[in-house]
């Protein structure tokens, strides 16, 4: 038998380009997500139920591969995934198949665009090992030290690399050296943060690392919604011609993550997020599009007013009042004031209805008040922004709180009204659910309606009676 360390199987050498439309992504229930802290490693891996699922390269809007999985006698196993290190995005999968089991640990090389897997296999009979690799966009290379002849026991390394010679260079370093450097990067990151004493350490650290890992390395401040392609977005090319949309940047999601990272002690990521909003996402008229690629190119282009309010809120959290920032924020605030029938929005946060939404109105009112607060700190007059915020705050109940709906106690806020008449019963005017309920006594309600309540109890205050400048509380 040949020495395992000497057997190098080149599985795919500069694999041909495969159009994304020809490959259906794996299910979106990812079991793991990892990347190195280093910007020199523009690669992100995800884990599915049978091994590596999509690997992203050279940025987080580009799924370069669909899957890379171990086959034993031509068949995959089923994996159980767990963290291999509570303080880094190092994951281990334990796979089982017919008469065999395997343990695979995954990391990314901090020095280059490569993902490494340390593989150990034990079988009850001699089995033949192979690696199935399915590219999606661009070119990839796979090298392996697993044996090519049937074996009962095997231990080797599989590397997926992007660029000529990258996989081999990562393999030459050795899995152990790469894994140690990878872990040190995450350990150092966590050491610079703060953790609430009451927090579950493992859950808190893993959550913070996953959020930090969603930031693109070529485009600082661009944090995608998710490295996955759920529902019809993965296969319906009319709905999503280029695979999406979750590997994109929503200003709303970006705000949520940025404020979470401020709380965790990573102010830098929030500063970069605000810069990305204002320098890459904001359009000439002042609004922010529904979402963008990580380079700032608009993807879906509907208007959601709460997303244009997002940088106003984030800037307040960061107390960013320099001239360039304030000029951009002013364009966003002025857009909110000038939008036709504002705060009526082309879409609300669930992205499938137009109308008057308490969630959207809450965000817009808070955004205007927060911007006014920054303006006043700079010694300028902010009356026009506070006046609009006050007016919309006074009208929100008339637009969105029903006294005739089917639930108690009344009145209560609705998810949305099409025409600002919450007590109307005309189905075509006020029903907003995707599948209308059987009752005809009023429009629909969701927990997003509680956004207004959350905003109304927030602080700080200015002269305006519409005073919330805290974090969004809608679900």
TrEMBL record:
This is Glucoamylase (Glucan-1,4-alpha-glucosidase), GH15 family. The keyword Ligase does not apply. InterPro entries: 6-hairpin_glycosidase_sf (IPR008928), 6hp_glycosidase-like_sf (IPR012341), Gal_mutarotase_sf_dom (IPR011013), GH-type_carb-bd (IPR014718), GH15-like (IPR011613), Glucodextranase_N (IPR015220). It comes from the Bacteria. Residues 425-446 have a biased composition (Low complexity). Residues 1-20 form the signal peptide. The keyword DNA damage does not apply. Residues 203-437 form the GH15-like domain. Keywords: Signal. Residues 424-446 are annotated as: Disordered. Coiled coil: none annotated. SUPFAM superfamilies: Galactose mutarotase-like (SSF74650), Six-hairpin glycosidases (SSF48208).
